[in-house]
Design goal:
alpha+beta
């Protein structure tokens, strides 16, 4: 059983195994924060929330929020990588326990000479 607190392991696995993303960012996919000397482009991911509830079938589930941050030196590259991230995760069942993945929000920024795309997702994780 996948624990909601461990969702980062699943996110990393899915992003790092995506062939197109691998061509775009290589192995530069990091939890929470990128390495100090990392070059563009790269991806950072992290969990943003967990809330417990009972679903319609009477099973406990967690609603889990997570964010994927894409950082690149060009605007178009940041968009293309963010789009590939979305195709990898949005509206998918990621595992037996992780379902109903929904892209809830996206914003963009220009920080420290880099284009930043921030994607915010929510999903359900079933457990009994």
């Amino acid at each position: 059983m996948v624990n909601s607190i461990l969702i980062g392991k699943t996110i990393y696995k899915l992003l790092s195994e995506n062939v197109t993303l691998k061509q775009m960012v290589g192995d530069k996919i990091y939890p929470l924060v990128a390495e100090n000397d990392v070059t563009y482009p790269f991806i950072v991911y992290f969990r943003t929330s967990i809330s417990n509830r009972v679903n319609k079938d009477g099973y406990y589930e967690d609603e889990v929020g997570f964010a994927i941050i894409v950082v690149s030196n060009t605007y178009i590259s940041s968009l293309e990588i963010a789009n590939e991230v979305r195709k990898t995760l949005d509206k998918r069942k990621l595992s037996e326990e992780i379902s109903n993945v929904i892209l809830e929000d996206v914003d963009e920024d220009f920080i420290n000479d880099a284009f930043v795309q921030q994607l915010y997702f929510k999903c359900a994780m079933n457990w009994q």
